[in-house]
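Supplementary Note 3. Input sequence used for the single-chain structure prediction.
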Amino acid sequence: MKKIALLLTLIGGLAWSANAQLQQKKPVTVRIATPTVQCEKCKKRIEDYMNREEGISKVTVDYKRKVTTITYLPNRTTIDNVKTGIANAGYDADEVKANADSYKALPTCCKKPEDQ
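The predicted structure, written as discrete structure tokens, is reproduced below.
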């Protein structure tokens, strides 16, 4: 009987520990300056690109204010990964500069005025 009680206690402890590890942290919402966003196409491109990234739950681009608001799960991604994702889409994100090859592939209307 003592062995069964010990075994059940052990199983319960393991189950509780596994459940605690599986619980997600609360989503984090950040605002990222995206100064190279120019138009509605830029908005759609960033939103589509970032919605495919792991851990991103919401993306809103305000191209008039040049700000992107992203909600992400901190146990699935980091703020650096989020900024890198925007840069990989071809746009500057805070201090992270756009990926040069991605920027070159943008439509003309999505490029900086001095590059058009």
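Strands lie at 28-33, 56-62, 67-72. The domain at 28-115 is CATH 3.30.70.100 (Alpha-Beta Plaits).
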